[in-house]
Amino acid sequence: MPKLSIIIPVYNTEPYLRECLDSIINQTFKDIEIIIVNDCSPDNSESIILEYQAKDPRVKYIKHQQNLGLGGARNTGIITSTGEWITFVDSDDYIDLNTYEEMLSLLDSNPSANLALFSAINFDHHTKKEYYDPCFWVDLPLGTIIDSENMLSVSVAVCMKIFRLSDIKDKSILFPEHLKHEDEEFWFKYVATTTPCSVSNSKKFYHYRQRSDSIMGQPSNSRKDFPEIMLNIYIFLKENGLLDSYQNALLDKTNDAILLYPRISDANIIDFLLDIKQILKELSCSLSSLTRYPLLEIISQVEFINDNTISRLNKVFTRANLLNKWHKLRRLPFKLLLLRIFLFLEKKR
Asked: How far apart are CA 226 and CA 81, in angstroms?
């Protein structure tokens, strides 16, 4: 049994795949299995995968007969994995060669821990210039318990984490298929059922490629699945008797995720907001419980989602976007205070 299983879903990433695989097969930590899942990629990725499989016996190749999306490909990897630990790498990204040696050593030194976290850095696909995003930085004290109070203080991205495989398999924690924001759902399910004890390293081991043709490089496309993801989380929490403990975290995530988009303008926005409104109805949220969630407060109060609602939200978005440029920290109490002031002024008009 290998110490670590590394899952790499592949779909249409031929130009970047060698860089990704080289960063994994050349890890200084050798006791790994590399599970590559070809999710019906239409390009020449398969020939590259077969080449690497031929020269490294640690490479396991699985080819889907039908496309299941990033989440479905990761699920195939989870089911196939045999390691003590499991992690994920996207096939257009790469990692430092000492990543897993350092992180597994940290886990071995802290036997009570069942989750390892590390940081990432973005880089522009064309210029190769790296730039820092505070969302992808983590620095928690050793032995920090992750629960509803702090689960959103770190990125939900699974590629910046190492999980104990038995925690995932024993609780049947899987990703949704054919939906973007799949990490959101997986992270909520994992934390709510496991309440893990963590170790972390602030080193930016993971290199996250930014390209306009990627899934998350097109916000209007990636955003449309978000209400369904949040509803999936709500149903999961409710069915497992965890809603009371994690409702505020769910509202926090919903409010923040909407706020991340600088303006609301695409054609599907009314349906999107109606879905958010339905989630609030499912949660039976009172107005008093939403005072700390400015955008959700607007959505819950209006009788109809229409152009006027969107206009009001866009005014808040414009101010919030300016504030984002002034201060990069998303989860800033002062930021929420200013947003409430903006909302109050809008109500007075």
From this structure: 28
Burial of 163-185, coded b for 16+ CB within 10 Å and e otherwise, reads bbbebbeeeebbbbeebbbbbbb
Of the candidates 48, 51, 47, 73, the residue with the CA atom closest to the CA atom of residue 62: 73
Residue of 324, 234, 264, 253 lying closest to 293 (CA atoms): 253
Token pair 């170790």: residue? 199
Domains and CATH numbers, the chain: 4-210 (3.90.550.10), 219-348 (no CATH)
**Token pair recorded at residue 40:** 């019906």
CB 264, CB 317: distance < 8 Å: yes
Distance CA 321, CA 316 (A): 8
pTM of the shown model:
0.85
Cα 202 from Cα 179, distance rounded (Å): 29
List of residues 6+ apart from 225 with CB closer than 8 A: 179, 180, 181
Q: What is the spatial distance between Cα 33 and Cα 100, in angstroms, rounded to a whole number? A: 12
Cα(183)–Cα(71) distance, rounded to whole angstroms? 8
Spatial separation of the C-alpha atoms in residues 169 and 225, rounded to whole Å:
25
Tell me the per-residue pLDDT of 20-77, one tens digit each, with 9 for 90 and over.
Answer: 999 999 999 999 999 999 999 999 999 999 999 999 999 999 999 999 999 999 999 9
Q: Residues 231-240, buried b or exposed e (16+ Cβ, 10 A)?
A: bbbbebbeee
Residues 142-178: pLDDT tens digits? Answer: 999 999 999 999 999 999 999 999 999 999 999 999 9
